[in-house]
Write a structure and sequence with these properties.
Elements (H helix, E strand, L loop, with lengths): L2 H49 L5 H20 L6 H26 L3 H17 L4 H22 L6 H93 L3 H24 L5 E2 H9 L9 E4 L4 E2 L1 H20 L9 E11 L1 E11 L12 H14 L2 E7 L2 E9 L6
Parallel strand pairs: 2-4
Antiparallel strand pairs: 1-3, 4-5, 5-7, 6-7
Helix pairs in contact: 1-2, 1-3, 1-6, 2-3, 3-4, 3-5, 4-5, 4-6, 5-6, 6-7, 7-9, 8-9, 9-10
Length: 420
């Protein structure tokens, strides 16, 4: 999500929150207004009962109806999300209260007290309810019409006496409309400020979350770099130890400087090729076929010289190094003394994986059509590496045979395998 989209989403969220707050305020204030109306009715009703227990039954009936309407409204006003329904119920109770007050004034022959009540209701609605000035103006019209009807009914003479009574409260009623408009503008300013505050808070939360994510990513990167440095240090040390060991062993078995140079260069080049291939696979390992092609492939005279028939077994990086060096020695011996020393010679390499309690990799090396071979009387470093390195380092097994038609070698190593 882009930053602008995030800001728009934040603004929408803030607007929705403010809308929910306004709906909740409308519900709470409507219920409060109804409670106040019911409390006033109850006070008047109880006072009338004790002062005039046998009088004004119709007034008590009107007030009782008004009280029941308020009680029913409180019963149904509970869900703030139903704004239109809550508005209609609250406004209905308000109109019923105005009409009930006017009717009580007519029945009591008293026009003054209801007018005071009308003014109070108008002021309360203008300041208490978060509605528009147009609704306040409509409520003023309802009050004015009820007041005209009440005064003209109670006081029939002199003619148009209601103009004086209604006119006395008209400025206050009109003022409530302007009060409602001013409060609406004030609420709009407050809502705008609240929306800005919510937007800023949401932006800060988003920025904090993004900063925390970046810090975590930075920490992961640092940890990965530290791990890579430790791994690199470990591999460099292992490689240097291997090179030193190869140099020492090659030097011991060399008959001359030129022999040492040739053997040592070949082994170092084989190690280099193996390391480059492992680095390309992020040190996860290599397929057996890829390893054999990497080590033995450079000794081909043509495509027929070396035949590779291997499965897709994936060998871990720990096994690749020692197995690759063993195959390199076999290939070097074949190139010097065996089947690969002539163009007619052939080498066949195959592999398979078997599970006899534990998974083991079997590699078969077979030479043919080369010069006759015999068991060597001198066992140099290369021969020692072939026969002993796998057994020493990975608990493998090597069976090397020098037959008249060529060298045969059976290699068996345990393979904790990884998927390719």
């Amino acid at each position: 999500m882009s930053r602008s989209e995030g800001n728009r989403a934040t603004e929408r969220s803030g607007a929705e929150t403010l809308g929910e707050n306004q709906e909740q305020i409308l519900l709470e204030r409507a219920r409060l207004g109804i409670v106040l109306i019911m409390a006033g009715i109850a006070v008047v009703f109880v006072g009338a009962y004790f002062l005039h227990p046998d009088q004004r039954p119709y007034i008590n009936l009107v007030q009782g109806i008004n009280f029941v309407v308020g009680a029913v409204a409180l019963r149904v006003l509970h869900d703030s999300t139903r704004r239109a329904f809550n508005f209609a119920i609250g406004y209905g109770v308000y109109v019923v209260t105005i009409v009930a007050a006017g009717t009580a004034g007519v029945l009591a022959g008293d026009a003054t007290t209801p007018l005071i009540i009308f003014v109070g209701l108008s002021v309360i609605t203008a300041t208490l309810l978060p509605w528009s000035p147009w609704w306040q103006a409509l409520s003023v019209l309802v009050i004015t019409a009820t007041a005209i009807w009440m005064v003209s009914t109670v006081i029939t003479t002199p003619h148009l006496y209601w103009v004086q009574n209604v006119g006395s409260i008209a400025p206050t009623l009109v003022a409530t409309v302007f009060i409602s408009a001013a409060l609406q503008r004030q609420r709009a300013v407050v809502e705008h400020a609240e929306r800005d505050r919510c937007s800023r808070e949401a932006s800060l939360r988003t920025a904090n979350a993004r900063l925390e994510q970046e810090i975590q990513e930075h920490q992961r990167t640092e940890e990965a770099l530290r791990f890579a440095m430790r791994e690199l240090d470990h591999r460099v040390k292992n490689t240097l130890a291997t090179v030193q060991s190869v140099a020492d062993q090659t030097l011991r078995g060399a008959k001359s400087v030129s022999d040492f140079r040739e053997a040592f260069a070949g082994r170092i080049q084989a190690l280099a090729r193996i390391h480059i291939a492992l680095a390309g696979r992020r040190w996860e390992g290599l397929r057996v076929s890829d390893l054999i092609e990497l080590v033995v492939g450079p000794y081909r005279h043509d495509r027929e010289s070396v035949s590779i028939d291997c499965d897709e077994t994936f060998v871990s990086s720990e096994l690749v190094r020692v197995l690759g060096m063993t195959l390199h020695e076999l290939a070097t011996n074949a190139a010097k003394h065996g089947a690969l020393s002539t163009k007619a010679g052939r080498v066949t390499i195959s592999s398979s994986t078997a599970a006899n309690g534990a998974s083991r990799l079997h590699i078969r090396w077979s030479e043919r059509d080369g010069p006759p071979v015999s068991t060597p009387t001198y066992r140099g470093f290369g021969m020692t590496l072939i026969e002993e390195a796998l057994a020493y380092e990975v608990n493998g097994r090597v069976a090397l045979q020098f037959q008249g038609g060529g060298v045969r070698c059976e290699i068996e190593v345990p393979v904790p395998l990884t998927s390719a």
